Amino acid sequence: MQTLVIEGYLAADPSILAAQGSGRKRASFRVLETTRYRRADGEAGERTTGFNCVCFNESTTENYIAPYARKGSRVVLQGHVENDSWTGKDGVDHYDLRVVVEDLRLKNRRRRGSEEAGPAGVAVAEASEDDIPF
User: Fold this and answer.
1) What's the pLDDT score for residue 112?
2) Considering its fold, how many domains does the chain have in total?
3) 116 contacts: CB under 8 Å, gap ≥ 6
4) Per mean pLDDT, which range of 11-20, 79-88, 93-102, 111-120 is the poorest?
5) Residue 100 is assigned to a structural domain of this protein
């Protein structure tokens, strides 16, 4: 299995879902990563790639993602890629790749709706809208 490390920003607030049978919680979110490069003609360019991610670890979902992660949060995650397939209501088969998150680090952890310092009393700098590449 190949391991993938992505550093980027959450495109939207994570979706916290509960499994129908067991009630176990999981988080689903999209991470955007921007790569900057120089073209052959010397012009600067950039490419933004979006990654669909899912975290099945209930502890991580409840203790870190739900209270701290929100649109624009900077994250570093480690995981592996899986194929995802489903059949739509119209009977058409759909295919996608998703990253199954094994480890997640939030770079700006502040509880939703709170202006307090992060865990262990460490003040966390919030990114302004000018710092977010999307």
Assistant:
1) 57
2) 1
3) 110
4) 111-120
5) yes
